Amino acid sequence: MLLIFAAILIGFWPLRLLHWYLGFALLCSSWIGLYLYAACSALLVRMPSTLMRPSRWWLIAVVPTSLVTMHLLGIAVTRASGFRSFIIPSSSMEMTIRKGDSLVADMRYYHSHRPERGDLIIFIKNDNLLVKRVIATSGEDVQGQNDTIFVNGKEQDEPYVEHTSRAAAKWLSNFGPIYIPSGKYFVMGDNRDVSLDSRFPKFGLIDESSIVGKPLYVFNSSRAGMSIR
After folding, report:
1. How many domains does the chain have?
2. Along the 229 residues of the chain, how does pLDDT read in single tens digits?
3. Same domain (yes/no): 97, 113
């Protein structure tokens, strides 16, 4: 069991299998299975006849305790390997990420990569973690005309965009042009009619130093295992 436990830890790091949904499913099922087997086998093992057999009531106490320990240790190992899970509380990224979806994010990806146009990013804004899509990067200019986005004068193909409100303010779809200075990013939600993003003057551009993670896939939803693009 110690060897299996070590193999699971290697799967978290350095292999970082949580980067893929299949790896997530494999590691989670192995983690749960190992803990339950270890707890049950310790209680059900044959005891010498000279010793008092432990009460079956211990099983009721040990299994929940093992599950709590497993959960807390799993969170610690997951974060130590550079991943975090989040529950999405808003509909601003629908239909790419739906309200109530749970997602896994790589919190180290942008340590070695720079965000590109079209990437989904997790960033800190007013002490909150938000997820939006990069529309324009440093040195580019962005403009909105009748729900169509132009970057450097070129119309953008955005099959992921959703419009859910006919009563949305016209300036949400008609703005700019806005020039993006060095180290800044213009971000928008995929649900353009309800997203609070860089189109709002009080929200503004996103600083590169505030970007902390990259969404990977969703779980615990009707679309579990779906890669986020």
Report:
1. 2
2. 889 999 999 999 999 999 999 999 999 999 888 887 887 777 676 656 555 666 667 667 776 777 788 888 888 999 999 999 999 999 999 989 999 999 999 999 999 999 999 999 999 999 999 999 999 999 999 999 998 999 999 999 999 999 887 767 888 899 999 999 999 999 999 999 999 999 999 999 999 999 999 999 998 777 767 778 7
3. yes
For residue 207, what is the domain's CATH number?
A: 2.10.109.10
Catalytic-role residue among 66, 81, 91, 92: 92
Q: Note if 90 is an active site residue.
A: no
Which of 120, 118, 148 minimizes the C-alpha distance to 136? 118
Q: Do 76 and 97 fall into the same domain?
A: no
- Domain span at residue 23 reads 2-45+55-81
| 92: annotated active-site residue | yes
Question: Which of 66, 91, 132, 214 is labelled catalytic?
Answer: 132
Tokens of 82: 């550079």
Same domain, 101 and 198: yes
Q: Residues near 133 by Cβ (< 8 Å), separated by ≥ 6?
A: 93, 96, 118, 119, 120, 121, 160, 187, 188, 189, 190
How much is the CA Rg of the chain, to the nearest whole Å? 23
